[in-house]
Amino acid sequence: MKHHGRITGWLTAMMVSLSAMCALAADRPTLKAGVFEPPRAAPELSLEASSGGKLALANYRGKVVLLGFGFTSCPEVCPTTLATLAQARRRLGAQGEQLQVLYVTVDPERDNADRMRAYLHGFDTSFVGGTGTPEQLAGVRKNYGVMAERKPFGNSYTVAHSSSVYVIDPKGLLRGMMPYGRLPDDYVHDVRALLSE
Amino acid sequence: MNRRGWLVIVAVGVLVGVSWAALTPLPERSTREQPFVIPEGTWQRRMSGDPVDILPQHIRLTLGINDVLLLKNQDTVPQTFGPALLMPGQSFRLPFEVASDYQFACTAHASGQMTIIVDPFPASAWGKLRWRALKLIESFGNKSHEPTT
To answer: Do residues B85 and B78 make contact, with C-beta atoms less than 8 angstroms apart?
Structure first.
């Protein structure tokens, strides 16, 4: 009898947990971005911030973080992405204060903190860049599954890199990934959806 | 029956087939997801030298029919699957709303890239015919679509 009671207890606990998990999943809003399910904690950054000091995701809890990877000498993809993100932030109006754009370099040889700050401020003065040693940056890329490959270009080089933007919610969960080429309104939609959770 | 008779029969058959493909409404699907699954044991198979190719370099989707890419990692180790790094048991669901060619960096392919071609919804007769022809070709050439589990 006692044994049956214990089994019933376990089953009840399992059903309650399952229901809670289903309810949590059902509560998640539909995003325009590609969505990770279940979401995991966004891998932490420990880099030099273009705004000075250390760049860590923990500093931005309570905000939606849009995390991109690129470099200041990028001819097309990065300027397009950053202009899109700047436009999205403007369209958010007052809610734009609850959005933080972070851009991590894939070209530490050329992109120091000063250069990144000057470059990013050309798009939006709130944008923060991250740089570090090649090893630190390779570690960050590995944690996020980002590809970056240096290729010769004339007398210099360029860097082929992943162009998606990672979407991190106010709790620090890696919720999604927006492919390159999406519109500012797609970002606005997702930022508002995550802020309203 | 003489040769001419057979030719007429074949021509009528082709005409009926093409007319059916062009005019019949496209089949309703219960889901718009196009799934690709990394099965358990994939990493071990790769480590033992078995070249496992799950994700094709070119994926073709159609708006309104199968316009959601669904990647699932059912293996026991993290896997870079197309554009996403997926933890064991994790999935990545990417909806498309605009017809276009999308390029993604992908270390799983020798070129370092994969392309997702999103076609518009085939509303016209010609569109339906083209869609069915592409599906027919895909069913012969692309064996990478894993069943949904």
So the answer is: yes
Under 8 Å between Cβ of B125 and B104 = no
Which residue stretches of chain A have pLDDT < 50?
Answer: 22
**Helical H segments across A122-165, by residue range:** 134-144
Q: Does any CB of chain A come closer than 8 Å to the CB of residue B17?
A: no
Say what the pTM is.
Answer: 0.81
Dihedral sign computed on CA atoms, order B94, B95, B97, B100: positive
Chain B CB contacts of A163 under 8 Å are 105
Pick the CATH number of A31-195 from 3.30.428.10, 3.40.30.10, 3.40.50.10320, 3.40.50.300: 3.40.30.10
Q: Which three-class secondary structure state does DSSP give residue B65?
A: coil
Please write the tens of the pLDDT for every residue from A6-23.
Answer: 656 655 555 555 555 545
A37 contacts B93? CB cut-off 8 A: yes
ipTM of the complex: 0.80
